[in-house]
Amino acid sequence: MQNAFRQLEERSLSAEVLHMCWSPMMDLIALANVNCEVLLQRLTWQKQPVWVLPAPPASDDIIQNVNTLAWRPDGKVLAVGYTSGQMLLCSVENADVLHTVTLTSAITCMQWVATRDLTEEPKGSDRDLFEDGADIFLPKLPPLAKLHSAKVFAEDNVEDAKRLKGQKRLNVLVVGLNEGKIQLYAYGIAAIGEVDMSQVSQQSHSTKEMTCGRITTATLSRDLCSLSLVMESRVDQDPNPTVHLLSLDCVLISSRREELTKFAIQSSKIFTFLEYLSATLRSVSEAREDILLEIETKLTKYAEQKKTAGSVRDELLQLLLWGRASPELQAFLLHELTEKGMKKLGQSVENSYSNIQKLVLKHIHSVGRSLVYHLSELKGMSLWYDKYGVIGLSPPAIQDAIGAVGSFMLKASELLQVLDTSLKNFKAFFRWLYVVMMRLSEEPVPNALNKVRQRDINFIADFLAENFAEDIGGSHQLEKQSGFTLERVGQYLKREDLQFPLTSSVNVESWQSCISTSPNLNSSQLVYKHQPHKSLVQLFESMKESIYTALSKPAVAVGGSIRCCDLLPLYTPDTPKESSEVHQPLTVSKYCHTEMPCFYTVLMMHQAPTQVIYLIRQPNHQAGAQYEAGVICLYFSVLGASNANDSTASQYSNRCNQHEVLDAAFFDDHTLTVLLQEQWSGPDSVAVVCQLPLGPLADHTFLPLTSQDVPLDQRPQISKIDAGLYVSHCRRLDNIKASIFAVSGSRKVSCVLFCNRRRVRLFDMDAEDDGEDESLSERSLLDASNVGIEETRQDESDSNKENIELPR
To answer: Per the CB 3.0–4.6 Å rule, which of 131, 295, 623, 745 could disulfide with 667?
Structure first.
């Protein structure tokens, strides 16, 4: 029994580790350190991690740390929750941030649940839920390969930027907040539940006024019927918080699983398109050249310093009509603007505007059509009230979102018109001015440039009339910093109203007049509203707000349907120390899908090490359980001594007869893994990792929990069980002072963190020791007194594990 786990690796870390979490599908472990970084390491623990996710930009008034980690059930995405309330979903391949959510308070716990259908072989389980036929009607979006800030859109398959392809079953990310709120996200992206525990608990227990606080654990059953959570709260204005155990009924989620899945798929695609559109607008801003601003500055400076009468526009018009330039204008053209500068300016403006035109035509128009398509799909779903209306889909809200997309697309078309007009005017103006400079400098003018058509003269005259003010720096210049407005495109990319709205043509004015005078057209959902004074960025922000509002309706509706079944006080925690955020008393919960499905919660009342832990069992009433929520108390004396035939157990028992609990975690649905330390006065007291089956513990009598405000440690009726008698496998960890650990039942591995939090030791939990480590023989026990408790580094042990390659 003693040498059941084989040591694999022991490695040092560059910074103190706060949290660890194993991938459920690959031999990878995620670690969060005190620098707010997240590292991904292999089981073989190479010198360099697979990747490092740097700390996000921090606000001046917020100290940001990683509070919790959670893996998607397929192991392809890692969720990271921060004390600032920000949640990131990262790709396991390269740490690309796939999705970002900003919540209202610190994230205190996360758990990603793989749902389970009621039948053994669910219908359509082999079908990719992401594929809905939209690719038949919509063209593929082109990648944004040149934009560094949009790496997830640099691949060919832009539509799957959230890494959802291949999903055959719904999974839900449960997020607990510091202010007593629960958020449920399908696939970690689409909000399908928002629960304010203050309102839920008040509805079920109206006699008490409850102020909800930190959510310690939140666990959702695989059938989505029940939600179990442990929460700190204050009752009836009590200054001391009380830890409560709650059981919530989520019948609407479980009964509308298919509808929520379809809604989540559509929502994830819409979020992808919005982020793609935001990245495209950043590309447009990067493509816009600022060289025109230099010309405007030079023209303004010349207008303020020139001594001749008349405006710059008048001088340029005279130069256009009669070919005569004043000495001041001639000197300005030859020495300030220069012939070389005008040639460079013309090329830069043409390249810039051409790139913007391509981005608008190829990217913005394409993604706009995709948004309208998927929003229309959602609207069609929402009109079926019996299936989708009950989960909160609102046809008016979705229609408002579609209208906002239409207005945005109209503004994008207007930007194209401005680009086309400006490009023609700029070409004619710069060509003419370049020829003038060559003539003033008495250089020969090429025949191709010397020919000026009447249409070009009209373009130039219109350009001068529209972009050069009459009164430079005068009193009639209303809040203008410059009398020149050569650049009309940049105003569309600012978060402010347009300074120079596009002048409507006669046809457009006639159409707008027709709409305003026709009640049917004015109220028609098929006619998108044109907002002439708004910029493209303003309409994009308005469109995002409308879409987010429409997509948030189901979360509110579903959250409002959740009701509280049990509200059970557990204990009053000790007053935390100033820097004890990482060292909160242990609370870990898991839904065990066994013959009798139930929630198991392991609870510590005090910070580790502690003498006892409490094991709470909550039934899933929807699964037909007939018993009440109950609790037993576990302590660990002699490990495995119940087996009289085990000689190693008896030898181990002679060494230490009492243990303290450092940490605990659920290995799988049937086993609890506990990290202990020997409680004796010997100089070589060490830690022990042991496996504790839940089956024998379930046969004991659990004391039913009631609403009485008596702490668990003051209830003498609770059965106190020596859990050491039921330990199936264990291993002493020599030369280590342990603090916490992480285990994975699916991968059969564990990782123990030293007390200094800068060194780890990894074990294979499903293999016998190869005999190289010290056994628990009599000789080793005699030599143990010579072993100090100082942590020493061991050589890398042999391992038969192959390197795990990340998915490409």
So the answer is: 745
Given a contact cutoff of 8 angstroms between Cβ atoms, the answer to whether 232 and 217 are in contact is no
Q: Helix, strand, or coil here: 701?
A: coil
Structure-derived torsion over alpha carbons of residues 635, 638, 642, 648, reported in degrees to the nearest 10: 150
Q: Identify the top-confidence range among 235-239, 370-374, 457-461.
A: 370-374
92/532 Cα distance (integer angstroms): 45
Q: What is the token pair recorded at 597? A: 């499905």
Contacts 24+ apart (CB under 8 A), 376-380: 376/402, 377/132, 377/134, 377/266, 378/263, 378/266, 378/270, 378/550
Amino acid at 681: S
pLDDT on residue 445: 76
Q: Which whole-number Å values give the CA distances from 563 to 177, 201, 247, 779, in the listed order?
A: 18, 8, 9, 60
User: 């210049």: which residue's tokens?
Assistant: 477
Q: Using DSSP, state whether 624 is helix, strand or coil.
A: coil
Could you check whether the bond before residue 609 is cis, i.e. omega within 30 degrees of 0?
A: yes
Task: Return the structure tokens found at 176.
Answer: 């607990």
d(CA 61, CA 581) in angstroms, rounded, equals 18
- For 156, other C-beta atoms within 10 Å of its C-beta total 11
Helix H, strand E, coil C: the string for 351-419 is: HHHHHHHHHHHHHHHHHHHHHHHHHHHHHHHHCCCCCCHHHCCCHHHHHHHHHHHHHHHHHHHHHHHHH
* Distances 408 to 16, 87, 234, 364, 494 between C-alpha atoms, Å: 48, 29, 48, 10, 14
Output the average pLDDT for the chain: 81
Structure tokens at 487: 């650049």
Torsion sign over Cα 373, 378, 379, 384? positive
Specify the length of the chain in residues: 808
Element (H, E) at 781: helix 778-783
| d(C-alpha 141, C-alpha 150), whole Å | 14
pLDDT of amino acid 23: 94
CA 400 to chain centre: 26
Helices (H), 192-332: 197-204, 251-255, 257-287, 291-305, 312-322, 327-332
C-beta of residue 677 within 8 angstroms of C-beta of residue 684: no
Give the residue extent of every domain in the chain: 1-16+586-808, 289-366+407-549
The SS3 assignment for 2 reads coil
Compute, in degrees rounded to 10, the torsion defined by CA atoms 400, 403, 409, 412: -70
Phi, psi of 477 (to 5 degrees): -85, 100
Calpha distance 676→664 (Å, rounded): 9
Question: Among 680, 651, 690, 691, which Cα is nearest to 789's?
Answer: 680
| Strand order from edge to edge, sheet including 181-186 | 107-114, 171-177, 181-186, 190-196
**Higher per-residue confidence, 129 vs 617:** 617
544: enclosing H helix or E strand: helix 536-561
Residues 594 and 231: beta-carbon distance below 8 Å: no
